[in-house]
Prior knowledge:
Elements: E1 5-8, H1 12-23, E2 28-32, E3 45-48, H2 53-63, E4 68-71, H3 78-91, E5 95-98, E6 111-114, H4 117-123, E7 130-133, E8 150-155, E9 167-171, H5 178-187, E10 192-196, H6 205-213, E11 217-220, E12 230-231, H7 234-244
Parallel strand pairs: 1-2, 1-4, 2-3, 4-5, 5-12, 6-11, 7-8, 7-10, 8-9, 10-11
Helix pairs in contact: 1-7, 2-3, 5-6
The chain binds NADP nicotinamide-adenine-dinucleotide phosphate.
Amino acid sequence: MSYPVLILGGTSEARALAAALHARGVAVMSSLAGRVERPRLPEGEVRLGGFGGPDGLTAWLAKHDVRAVVDATHPFAARITDSAVAATARAGVPLLRLERPGWTQPDGADWRWVDSLEEAAELLPSLGERAFLTSGRQGLAAFADVDAVWFLIRCVDPPEAPLPQYHELLLDRGPYTVDRELELLRTHRIDVLVSKDSGGSMTAAKLTAAARHGIPSVIVRRPPRPDTPTVSDVDDALHWALEVA
Ligand code: NAP
């Protein structure tokens, strides 16, 4: 079976693009890493699991006669993005990056930028004693030795050890509202928030809530991205894909 467009997904933008292409009768394939137990599935065809690095992805592109790849993966999913760059270059297939903009600091918010989760873990005890940790299931090991802080850890699926000694798990997925986030901060007496600069509206409410609650937010900067043509708007990616494929 051939698929003119391959979307590397796992984000709401990827799902929106798949739906738009599917509605126009394009045979689109969405690819998900397959880590989340019950992923929100995009419209159209879906495959799950890694390709086996750039070699595997290159072979997949050839086998399925792919004419355009849209990398709409999460801003922190650096490996699959690098793999897409290498594979599309080898296969001679055009690549577009669809990436949501990072967040903008709300008025009155106290943001502390760091380059990694490890740096966030180092900084945390100087900022508070009860942290709301929303950086996702992966990378929690960075906080495993932070015994001076109690953590409310929110993620979609249960995380693997090692986890910090003092913590409570909250399994949930967005979208969230500011009122609900404020309620969480109050109930758990949170005095510092930790988040990646994921961007997007689905999980932005915590930042507004933290600012209103008067607590600092530790924000992890996005990893460096390859120099790929990039759009942030789903419609722009749609027009590109329709033109190229
Ligand atoms: P990653 O570190 O860049 O990728 C690790 C490996 O997982 C890749 O080398 C690739 O395996 C496989 N993979 C990742 N995304 C894939 C996809 N869309 N289709 C097929 N294989 C994929 O990625 P990650 O940070 O673990 O994220 C995994 C997925 O979750 C991504 O699709 C991303 O969009 C989504 N996500 C990530 C975050 C986050 O904070 N990192 C947040 C929300 C959603 P092979 O090398 O074998 O091809």
